[in-house]
TrEMBL record:
<dbReference type="GO" id="GO:0004081">
    <property type="term" value="F:bis(5'-nucleosyl)-tetraphosphatase (asymmetrical) activity"/>
</dbReference>
<dbReference type="GO" id="GO:0006167">
    <property type="term" value="P:AMP biosynthetic process"/>
</dbReference>
<dbReference type="Pfam" id="PF00293">
    <property type="entry name" value="NUDIX"/>
</dbReference>
<dbReference type="GO" id="GO:0006754">
    <property type="term" value="P:ATP biosynthetic process"/>
</dbReference>
<keyword id="KW-0378">Hydrolase</keyword>
<feature type="domain" description="Nudix hydrolase">
    <location>
        <begin position="55"/>
        <end position="223"/>
    </location>
</feature>
<dbReference type="InterPro" id="IPR051325">
    <property type="entry name" value="Nudix_hydrolase_domain"/>
</dbReference>
<dbReference type="InterPro" id="IPR000086">
    <property type="entry name" value="NUDIX_hydrolase_dom"/>
</dbReference>
<protein>
    <recommendedName>
        <fullName>Nudix hydrolase domain-containing protein</fullName>
    </recommendedName>
</protein>
<dbReference type="InterPro" id="IPR015797">
    <property type="entry name" value="NUDIX_hydrolase-like_dom_sf"/>
</dbReference>
Length: 241
C-alpha cells in the first residue's frame, strides 16, 4: 500500500514538472496573435494582381472622331454629327482601333496621340470631354468616388490583355479629335504595319469592328461625346437668353 502511494505521488510530481517545463518552452499565446496580426496587415484587403518589370507592357490608343460640317451636316445632331476612324488590317482582314506600345520616356497621352497619327495617318489631338473619372483634382486626396468633370482628357477605358508566357498588356484608351481640315498624311505607318484607315459614321463603326471589346469602348466614347456636346449646346443657349 505504501509503495503504491509513493508511485502515485511521484507520477504527480513528474506531471507537474513536465507541464511547467512545456509552459516555459512554449511561446505565450499573445506572441502567436501578434505574429498573425502582422501577417494579416502585410496583405492587401483587396484581391491584388502585381506585374513586375519585364512582365508587362503599356499601350495606348484613341477613338478618333471627326466633325461633319455644313452643308452636309446642317440637320445632323447627336452621333450623326460625327465620324469615327477605324483601321482595316489588311493581312488578317480585321477592323480595329488605333493603338500601340508606349516608347521609353513617353507619357501615355503622348503615346495615344502618336500611335493614332501613325496608324490612321490623320493629325489629331486629345479632345477634352465632360466624363466620369475617379482621378482627384490636383492637391485633393480625400475624394474616393466617381465624379463627372468638365473638359478633361482622362482615359475612358483600360483593357487588360493576357499575352504569352504569363505576360500582360495594359491598354489605355482616350478620346481624340482630328485636326480641323487635316488631310491624310502619306507614309506615316511603321514598316511592319499594313492598315487602311477609314472615317465612317458611328453606326458603321460599331457594326464593322471585329472585336466586341472595341465596340464596347467605341460605344462608351460615343456616349461621352454626345453627352458633352449636348452640355455645350445647352450652355450656349443659356448664354443667349
Amino acid at each position: 500500500m505504501f509503495r503504491v502511494t509513493v508511485t502515485h505521488n511521484a507520477y504527480r510530481v513528474i506531471l507537474i514538472c513536465a507541464r511547467h517545463l512545456v509552459r516555459r518552452l512554449k511561446p505565450p499565446r499573445r506572441f502567436s496573435f501578434v505574429q498573425h496580426f502582422r501577417t494579416a496587415m502585410a496583405a492587401s484587403h483587396y484581391p491584388t494582381t502585381q506585374y513586375l518589370a519585364g512582365n508587362f507592357v503599356l499601350s495606348a490608343g484613341c477613338i478618333l472622331f471627326r466633325r461633319i460640317h455644313p452643308p452636309e451636316s446642317a440637320s445632323r445632331t447627336g452621333a450623326s454629327a460625327f465620324e469615327i476612324c477605324i483601321l482595316h488590317e489588311m493581312t488578317k482582314d480585321e477592323w480595329l482601333l488605333p493603338k500601340g506600345r508606349k516608347d521609353r520616356g513617353e507619357t501615355l497621352e503622348q503615346t495615344a496621340v502618336r500611335e493614332t497619327y501613325e496608324e490612321t495617318s490623320y493629325p489629331c489631338h486629345l479632345w477634352p470631354q465632360r466624363m466620369p473619372t475617379r482621378a482627384p483634382a490636383p492637391g485633393v486626396s480625400n475624394i474616393h468616388r466617381t465624379q463627372i468633370v468638365d473638359d478633361i482628357t482622362e482615359p475612358l477605358a483600360v483593357t487588360v490583355r493576357a499575352l504569352r508566357q504569363g505576360r500582360t498588356k495594359l491598354i489605355f484608351w482616350y478620346i481624340a479629335l482630328a485636326e480641323e481640315g487635316a488631310e491624310k498624311v502619306a507614309r506615316s505607318q511603321m514598316e511592319n504595319e499594313n492598315f487602311e484607315s477609314h472615317f465612317v459614321d458611328t453606326e458603321t463603326a460599331l457594326r464593322r469592328l471585329t472585336f466586341q471589346s472595341d465596340r464596347d469602348i467605341v460605344q462608351q466614347a460615343i456616349d461621352i461625346v454626345i453627352g458633352s456636346n449636348n452640355s455645350e449646346e445647352k450652355a450656349d443657349e443659356g448664354s443667349l437668353l
